From TrEMBL:
It comes from Ceriporiopsis subvermispora (strain B) (White-rot fungus). InterPro entries: Cupin_8, JmjC_dom. It holds the Pfam family Cupin_8. Coiled coil: none annotated. The lineage of its organism: Eukaryota, Fungi, Dikarya, Basidiomycota, Agaricomycotina. Residues 145-404 form the JmjC domain. It comes from the Eukaryota. This is JmjC domain-containing protein.
């Protein structure tokens, strides 16, 4: 099946039998270094009066969850308990108002080298929306599918009316203090693809050369932008279940993240993997062909098996934190990393790494030149409400202060 024809396919599955084959396959990617990321500062909308554009600027999240004693409450009860939010329904309606408009999808990861590893295809917006709502695997031909950096608000009046810049940024734009470079939409599948992350992190790639499980996770690799960025998670198909996980590093980490092997100058060749802590893993109910989440028993067995592989730090040595229920692993070998990162690199990244999970309605400020990695995730401890992959939709505003 060609990439163009594959883009119109609906409900392409990642068969359970293939997943079982990956689980049983021995691989070199069965251990790694765990980064000790610190939480990103969370603030309330009422406490936010300005944005810091200085070289000392740090990221922060404008939270929609209760904040007490400086620690956000990330339990599922802090998010509206409903399968589909009004935000999601309104966004889908706005997208359907321009169903015939052609959009360009990313198929695969742009940071992976090799024939057929990455492609761009054009399809009608309505086809993509239908696929998002019905797909069980969230991937096509074993590759992630993403509508990224799409200037939808410039093209669709309904979107322009629905999505406005956050108040603190809108004030700066109206006052002429910043120049807005671009408003970009990022819309892609969330659930069924990311539940495979546990298996990919522990087992890696099949020895027969088949498509790696890791390629099924919707990831934007570590990169930095020449603009300041306000990123808002506009909507999710199930706010209690799906979110976006961010890992950030300050510009001072550039010496550890840049590499001649990088596909683009602003993109790192260092790969990371998210692994849900076992106690947060649940099983997805569905047909025999659905991708599924390993049960606690299966996960525990594979995590335990890591103790037989030499590595400075293993998954079982990490602990769940209040701000991040995922372990952040640097695998010993990946599709984008040729050599094992040095101990000094791992130490530096662990010292300065920040992480957060962005829920529907929350906003993240990323200062200019900060490195960041983004991944759609199933929130650990939450059971998907349907057998479909689900989706998230984010909006990013890229801008620079006039003084620069």
């Amino acid at each position: 099946m060609s990439s163009r024809l594959a883009a119109y396919a609906i409900c392409i599955h990642y068969p359970r039998r293939l997943l079982a084959r990956h689980i049983s396959t021995q691989s070199s990617i069965n251990s790694g270094y765990a980064l000790r990321a610190k939480p990103i500062l969370r603030v309330t909308p009422a406490s936010l009066s300005k944005l810091d554009f200085s070289a000392r600027a740090e990221p922060f999240v404008v939270s929609c969850t209760p904040i007490g004693n400086g620690t956000p409450e990330l339990s599922r009860t802090s998010i509206p308990n409903q399968a589909a939010s009004m935000r999601g329904l309104e966004l889908l309606q706005a997208l359907r108002s321009a169903s015939d408009r052609l959009i360009e999808l990313e198929l695969g990861r742009y940071d992976v080298r090799g024939p057929g590893a990455f492609d761009r295809i054009e399809i009608p917006l309505g086809h993509y929306v239908e696929w998002l709502e019905r797909s069980k695997s969230g991937c096509i031909e074993g590759k992630q599918v993403y509508l990224a950096q799409w200037r939808g608000a410039d093209e669709i009046p309904e979107l322009r009316r629905l999505v406005r810049p956050p108040h603190v940024l809108e004030k700066l734009i109206e006052a002429g203090e910043v120049d807005l470079y671009q408003t970009s939409f990022f819309i892609g599948p969330a659930g069924a693809v990311s539940v495979l992350t546990l298996v990919s992190a522990l087992q890696g790639y099949a020895s027969d050369g088949s498509v790696p499980v890791a390629a099924l996770t919707l990831v934007t690799p570590i990169h930095h932008d020449p603009y300041a960025n306000v990123y808002h998670l506009q909507a999710s198909s199930a706010p209690c279940t799906y979110g976006k996980h961010f890992v950030l590093f300050p510009p001072s980490m550039s010496e550890h993240l840049t590499s001649p092997r990088s596909v683009q100058p602003n993109t790192s060749s260092l790969d990371l993997r998210l692994v849900p802590h076992p106690r947060g893993i649940v099983e997805r109910a569905g047909t025999s062909d659905d991708a599924y989440i390993p049960t606690n028993k299966v996960a525990d067995e594979h995590i335990s098996s890591l103790s037989h592989t030499p590595a400075p730090m293993f998954l079982e040595e990490t602990t769940e934190t209040e701000h991040d229920p995922f372990s952040i692993l640097v695998p010993l070998s990946t599709v984008t990393t040729a050599t094992v990162p040095s101990s000094s690199t791992i130490g530096a990244l662990s010292t300065y790494a920040l992480s957060c999970i962005l829920h529907e309605g929350e906003t993240l400020y990323i200062p200019r030149s900060w490195w960041h990695r983004v991944e759609n995730v199933v929130l650990p401890g939450s059971a998907p409400t349907t057998v479909t992959a689900g989706w998230t939709a984010g909006v990013g505003w890229w801008f620079l202060p006039r003084s620069n």
